[in-house]
Amino acid sequence: MGVYFSTALVILIYFTAIFVLAQIMKNNSIVDSFWGPSFLIVALWTYFAAPEEGARSTAVTILIAIYAIRLFTHITVRNWNKPEDYRYVAMRKRWGDKNPMLKAYINVFLLQGVISYLVALPIIAVNSSASQELGLIGCIGIAIWITGFLFESVGDSQLKSFKADPKNKGRLMTEGLWSYTRHPNYFGEAAMWWGIFIISVSGFNEIILIISPLIMTYLLIYVSGVPLLEKKYESRADFKAYSERTNKFFPWFPKK
Predict the structure, then answer these.
(1) Which residues of 92-111 are buried (b: 16+ CB within 10 A; e: fewer)?
(2) 28 close to 104: Cβ distance less than 8 angstroms
(3) From the CB of residue 227, how many other CB atoms can be counted at a distance below 10 Å?
(4) Which helix (H) or strand (E) element contains residue 21?
(5) What is the value of pTM for the model shown?
(6) Whole-angstrom distance, CA of residue 8 vs CA of residue 137
(7) Element (H, E) at 186
(8) How far apart are CA 187 and CA 175, in angstroms?
(9) Degrees, nearest 5: CA angle 29-35-40
(10) If DSSP codes are grouped into helix, strand and coil, which group holds residue 75?
(11) pLDDT tens-digit profile of 193-231?
């Protein structure tokens, strides 16, 4: 249990440091950039703390590194020189003037630290496991992760290119992967964590690790991902037409 406690402490220190930086910058939304790297911190901490590395732990650590670096770069470049995200501005208004920094620390940074720790449980488990044979199941997990990574990275790239074209100002992105699901990037995010979970399971007693992809999928579909964007566009006629022919989350061929 030592590695689980030490990892919790590392995450606490990490998000506390990001909180301090955010207060200096007066921008709590920078936490979005540092969400992905929190998992890389966990992966590296547990990988090098293990008595010996193996195929499964090496695979997971490499996959997490790719995921974290891409997500950090994507979000940071997207938000560079922009004001605090409207979601965090709304939070500040709801909190009022009484203890705003404490409320920010608890409701944003500490909460994200707790969620990060729960989602990272498969990383901790596989990097501290004595069973390191990758096997067929592990390869299936890698294949699912790659599928998710392609959906997230290609979806983000397609959306970025679409928005960069002045002709598309005010239009909805409904092409490429966005014609198969209204949220290919969020689907990809969920799929990657299901892949990590599958790689991390070496026995029935580790099935509890399913809490990781379940939490991530739930948050994306019902809390912080899909609902926010759906609500933003729900009153638009073009979005209603788009939603009638395109699946919300799981990719499928568009309806005629």
Answers:
(1) eeeeeeeeeeeebbeebbbe
(2) yes
(3) 12
(4) helix 2-25
(5) 0.93
(6) 28
(7) helix 184-200
(8) 16
(9) 150
(10) helix
(11) 999 999 999 777 789 999 999 999 999 999 988 998 899
Which residues are within 8 A (CB) of 241 and not within 5 positions of it... i.e. 6 or more apart? none
In 177-247, the DSSP E strands lie at none
By the 8 A CB rule, do 107 and 91 touch? yes
- Name residues whose C-beta falls within 8 Å of residue 129's C-beta, 6 or more positions apart in sequence: 54, 56, 57, 200, 202
Span 113-151, pLDDT tens digits: 999 999 999 999 999 998 899 999 999 999 999 999 999
Residue 61 tokens, joined: 């650590």
Scan for tokens 């964590």, then name that residue: 193
Q: What H or E segment, with its residue span, contains residue 249?
A: none
Token pair 């703390």 is found at 49
Residues 128 and 122: their CA atoms lie apart, in Å, by 10
Q: What angle do CA 75, 111, 210 make, to 5 degrees?
A: 85
118 with 211: CB under 8 angstroms?
Answer: yes
Place of tokens 């096997």: 135
The closest alpha carbon to 193, from 154, 141, 228, 150, belongs to: 141
Contacts of 165 (CB under 8 A, 6+ apart): none
Q: Determine the residue type at 250.
A: F
Tokens of 137: 């199941």
Chain centroid to Cα 246, Å, comes to: 23
What the block records as the tokens of 6 is: 């030490």
- Token output for 70: 């891409």
